[in-house]
Write a structure and sequence with these properties.
190 residues, mainly alpha, Cytochrome Bc1 Complex, Chain D, domain 2, elongated
Length: 190
C-alpha cells in the first residue's frame, strides 16, 4: 500500500512539473532571444542532445582518403566562400555576425578536426538546427562536402601563409577542374 501511495505521489509531482513547464512555454516566458543568456540547465541539455545526435548519425560514415592536395585546395575555396564569417580563417578576428550568434560557432582555426572527419562531414552535410549552421548537402555534392571536411580537419595546423597558398592553388574556384579520371558537376540550386 505504501508503494502504491509513493507511486501516485511521484506521478502527481511529474504531472505538475510537466504542467508548469507547458504553462511557462505557452505564455512565452522562456526567452528565445539570441542576446539573452539561456538557463545553464537548458544549454547543457541542448548540447547533450546535439552531441548524442551527431555521434549516432555519424558512426557508420565511411571516411575516404582526405590528403589529396587538390581536395584540400577545393575545400579551402569552399571554406573561404561559405564559412569564414562564422568560423573564421587563419589570422582573422571575430566577425560582427559571429558575435551576434548564440550559440557562438566554434572557431575552426583552433577547433577544426576536434570531432573527427565523420562527425565533421555529417555536420557540414546536414547542418544543425537552431544554430545557423546550414545543411550544405542540399546544395553541394559529395566531392565538395568531403573537400570541405578535409580542409576543416587540417585547418588548425595552417598558418596564415599556408591558408593563402591553398586558396591560391584553388584559384578561388569552388569547382574542381575536370580531367580524364574525374568529372565534377557542382550544383548550387536546392
Amino acid at each position: 500500500m505504501a508503494a502504491l501511495k509513493s507511486l501516485l505521489v511521484a506521478i502527481v509531482i511529474i504531472v505538475l512539473i510537466i504542467g508548469a513547464g507547458l504553462i511557462l512555454l505557452n505564455r512565452g516566458l522562456y526567452d528565445v532571444a539570441a542576446d539573452a543568456r539561456g538557463s545553464p540547465i537548458v544549454q547543457r541539455f541542448i548540447v547533450f542532445v546535439r552531441n548524442r545526435s551527431i555521434d549516432a548519425h555519424a558512426q557508420d560514415i565511411s571516411v575516404p582518403p582526405l590528403n589529396d592536395p587538390r581536395m584540400l585546395a577545393l575545400g579551402a575555396a569552399h571554406y573561404a566562400e561559405m564559412c569564414t564569417t562564422c568560423h573564421l580563417a587563419p589570422g582573422s578576428k571575430d566577425s560582427e555576425l559571429r558575435a551576434g550568434l548564440d550559440p557562438m560557432p566554434p572557431n575552426l582555426t583552433r577547433e577544426g578536426g576536434r570531432l573527427g572527419p565523420a562527425k565533421t562531414y555529417w555536420i557540414i552535410k546536414h547542418g544543425i538546427r537552431m544554430t545557423a549552421m546550414p545543411a550544405w548537402g542540399r546544395t553541394h555534392d559529395e566531392r565538395a562536402l568531403w573537400a570541405l571536411t578535409a580542409f576543416v580537419e587540417k585547418l588548425p595546423t595552417l598558418s596564415v601563409d599556408d591558408y593563402h597558398k591553398l586558396l591560391g592553388q584553388s584559384g578561388g574556384q569552388t569547382e574542381e577542374p575536370a580531367d580524364e579520371e574525374h568529372e565534377h558537376e557542382h550544383e548550387h540550386s536546392p
